[in-house]
Amino acid sequence: MSQTTAAPIVIRAEHLVKRYGDFTAVDDLSFEVPAGESFGLLGPNGAGKSTTMRMIGGVSQRTSGTLQIMGLDPQQQGPTVRAHLGVVPQQDNLDEDLRVRDNLLIYGRYFGLSRAHLLPKVERLLDFAQLQDKADARVDDLSGGMKRRLTIARSLVNDPRVLLLDEPTTGLDPQARHVLWDRLFRLKEQGVTLVLTTHYMDEAEQLCDRLIVVDGGRIMAEGSPAQLIRTYSSREVVELRFGADRNAAAAERIHDLGDRVEALPDRVLLYAHDGEAALEAVAARGLQPVTSLVRRSSLEDVFLRLTGRSLVE
C-alpha cells in the first residue's frame, strides 16, 4: 500500500508574541503551514493578522517565541528568507512615476536579476495579470483592480516559494475580486504556498484550505472552513424578521427550536440542522415573521460567534 508523503513545513510558529510597550498585538500564536497550502489568518481589524505577517516577512522582530520560514529564522537570516518570499502589502506601494512594465523590471533588479532574464519574465507576468495592453501606461492611470494585479505580479518577479498577501482584495469591486481570486488559484496550482489575511468571509471560504480565526492576538479556532462550520455552527440558519420591537420577544418563544437562537436588532437567527423543519415549527407556534429565509451556515456565522458582532461594525 502506497503512503502519501506529507508536504514539508515551510512556516512554523511556536508561542509567537509581539508586544508594543504594554500592548500585546500577538499573544502566543502557534501554527504550521505545509508547502503548497493556502493558509488564512481570519479576524477583525486589530486582531494581530498584519503584525504576524510582518514577522513572517522579517520586517518586524518578535518579542518572544520561535519562528521558522523554510527552516530559517527571519529575524536572523532576513535577506535569505525574503529572497524566497513574495509580499503583497495591504496598501499598494507601486512607483506611480513609472510605467507598468518598468515597475516590474526595476523591482526585479533589486533581486540582482539581469535585464536579459527579466524581459521575457516581465511579459509572462503581464500576461498572468491581464495587463498586456496596459504595459506602457502610467500606474496612476490604472483602476484599483489593475493596481492590485500589478502588485501581485511584482511580488512574483523572484519566483517566490511563499506568497504573503495582506488583505489582498480590500476596496475592490466584486468583478475585480473574482479576477484576483482566479489569479491566486492559478498560483496555488503551480505549487506556490499562499498565506493571506482577510476579514472577508467569502474570500476565506474561496481561497483557504485551512485557516486560523484570530481575535485580540490569540487563536480562537483552527481548521478548514468546512470543519469550522461543522464545529461552531449548525447545518442551516433560519433568518426571521418580526420587526425591531418584536424580535426579542419572538426569540424567547422559539429558543428551544434549534441548536441556538440569536436576537439581533433587525432579525432573529435560528440555528438548526433542518431549517425548513424549524421554520414550520415557528409557524406552528403561531408566529408570523414579516420575512423568512433558510440558508446554509457559513464561515461568517462562525466568525461572529467567535469574535462578536461589535468588533466588525
Automatic annotation (TrEMBL):
<protein>
    <submittedName>
        <fullName>Lipooligosaccharide transport system ATP-binding protein</fullName>
    </submittedName>
</protein>
<dbReference type="InterPro" id="IPR003439">
    <property type="entry name" value="ABC_transporter-like_ATP-bd"/>
</dbReference>
<dbReference type="Pfam" id="PF00005">
    <property type="entry name" value="ABC_tran"/>
</dbReference>
<feature type="domain" description="ABC transporter">
    <location>
        <begin position="11"/>
        <end position="241"/>
    </location>
</feature>
<keyword id="KW-0472">Membrane</keyword>
<keyword id="KW-1003">Cell membrane</keyword>
<keyword id="KW-0046">Antibiotic resistance</keyword>
<keyword id="KW-0547">Nucleotide-binding</keyword>
<keyword id="KW-0067">ATP-binding</keyword>
<keyword id="KW-1278">Translocase</keyword>
<dbReference type="GO" id="GO:0005886">
    <property type="term" value="C:plasma membrane"/>
</dbReference>
<dbReference type="GO" id="GO:0016887">
    <property type="term" value="F:ATP hydrolysis activity"/>
</dbReference>
<dbReference type="InterPro" id="IPR050763">
    <property type="entry name" value="ABC_transporter_ATP-binding"/>
</dbReference>
<dbReference type="InterPro" id="IPR027417">
    <property type="entry name" value="P-loop_NTPase"/>
</dbReference>
<dbReference type="InterPro" id="IPR003593">
    <property type="entry name" value="AAA+_ATPase"/>
</dbReference>
<comment type="similarity">
    <text>Belongs to the ABC transporter superfamily.</text>
</comment>
<dbReference type="GO" id="GO:0005524">
    <property type="term" value="F:ATP binding"/>
</dbReference>
<dbReference type="GO" id="GO:0046677">
    <property type="term" value="P:response to antibiotic"/>
</dbReference>
<keyword id="KW-0813">Transport</keyword>
<dbReference type="InterPro" id="IPR017871">
    <property type="entry name" value="ABC_transporter-like_CS"/>
</dbReference>
